[in-house]
Design goal:
Helix content is about 10%, strand content about 45%. It is built from 3 helices and 16 strands. Strands 2, 3, 5, 6, 11, 12, 14, 15 and 16 form a 9-stranded mixed sheet that branches. A 4-stranded antiparallel sheet has the order 1-8-7-4, with no helix packed on it. The chain is globular.
Amino acid sequence: MKTFLNLKQYLILFAAIFSLTSCLKSDDPDFQIYGGACVKQEVTKIPGVDGEEATYSSKFTPLIFVRGYNYEQITNCTVSGGTTMIMGKVDDYGYIWRTSIISSSTDFPTGTYVVTATSVEGEQAQTSASFSSSSQTMKNKLEGSINYSNNKLTFEFNKVENATAYLVVAKSSLDATFFEFATIQEYTEAQISTGALTLEKSSIDSKIAQAGNYYLITVAIISSNSGNLVYQEGDQFASYTRE
């Protein structure tokens, strides 16, 4: 699996949304790690009966990723606190790790998770991620079609209550998380209200660094001062090949 986190997402991750606090001592610079955290929200739409409006239920999955500073390799990575998590390598070299076995809940995750990483020399470093109970969540399901044909992507977003931005992203596998998305384009609520939107192949290719087969999906996010990024993926995808 490859990672496609671009500069804009790094700015989102480290400057605006994640309440990430380093536990490293300033006099111990030999091995360092940094990371981020977010929450995946999965929404189920329950159709109404006898003319009643649809209702929605959600489950939430906390996600953490860690990267070795200056491409230092990590041989082991563990998480303590809160829900049990298991970390796994994102790349082939151990530069980047993320939660690979996680538990979802109908309750929004809260509390602090401490991540401990071990370098190839056996040194350890820590960082922590906190999830805030004051975070907003999305109140309805992200829906809308997405289709790629004749070198053009056509897609739609519906308004998702509390979402602060809407994205078209590419990912190399269906189980890839937010940290592995390549953001193709970001939209505001005003932009999506105009109806169907399109992207040309050249615009998509310019945001994907490596050739290969991808899935293009729509995503709604909430980023706020509460300390968490929350994201929801659309159910549909379009297959795409970057040549």
